[in-house]
Specification:
This protein has about 120 residues and is mainly β. It has strands at about 5, 10-15, 20-25, 30-40, 45-50, 55-60, 65-70, 75-80, 90-100, 105-110, 115-120. A hairpin with a 6-residue loop joins strand 4 (about 30-40) and strand 5 (about 45-50).
């Protein structure tokens, strides 16, 4: 069974920083691309940042230059360093990962979400 567990959310003032972490657990995992998404109240879930197994990254225009995604393959963990946070970054942040179990089926798994609130 696969679990993605996020941590690091919270309340911060505008201009501040937070670092989110998301760790995958389970046996027989091969992890491909990992990403962070967010969903603000009344809005659709949107991609924030993506990182491939080889380390290539992609960012939403709204966070370029402020957020950095990284991963530690040995720890099966993806990180999102968020700097210069703005009130419009307030949302529930979700991580996801493409995971192949025992070399067989590949599925996309989601974490439970972590709240990030930026006050003005």
């Amino acid at each position: 069974q696969v679990h993605l567990v996020e941590s690091g959310g919270g309340l911060v003032q505008a201009g501040g920083s937070l670092r989110l972490s998301c760790a995958a657990s389970g046996s027989g995992l091969r992890i491909g691309a990992m990403g962070w998404y967010r969903q603000a109240p009344g809005k659709q879930r949107e991609l924030v940042a993506l990182i491939t197994s080889g380390g290539s990254t992609n960012y939403a225009d709204s966070v370029k230059g402020r957020f950095t995604i990284s991963r530690d393959n040995a720890k099966k963990t993806v990180y999102l360093q968020m700097n210069n946070l703005k009130p419009e970054d307030t949302a529930v942040y979700y991580c996801n990962a493409e995971i192949t179990l025992y070399g067989l089926a590949t599925n996309v798994y989601w974490g439970q979400g972590t709240q990030v609130t930026v006050s003005s």
